[in-house]
Amino acid sequence: MTDRLSVKLKLLELICYRADEGDGDEVFLKQNGRKVWPEDQKYLRISEGIVKVNLALDVELGSQVILELWDYDVLSSNDKLGEFRMLVDQRGAEFTTDLHEGKSRAKYSLKWELS
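and the corresponding structure tokens:
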């Protein structure tokens, strides 16, 4: 039996270029189907700009991670704004990944790194 090496997936910043809703989006992030951010509230309201995420997640080297960006809705089901799938295969410097969902007009990016 081999133990997998645990590494830190650091989510650094969420960049909003264009919100899905005119007054901004109420966003939250999920990792592999589980809400991970924001940690102390249901969502964070964002319109154009940069939000510091500053979240470190333990992931296993060799595993697949799915990150999803969602918009919280009170009167209807939540809207998926974007998704990013990655194979955790190496540690590295800072990366920026676009998060986009076909039906949404929103445009977001996520800055992250593995250490």
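(Above: one complete record from the training split.) The beta strands are 6-18, 25-31, 34-37, 44-46, 49-60, 64-71, 79-87, 92-99, 107-114.
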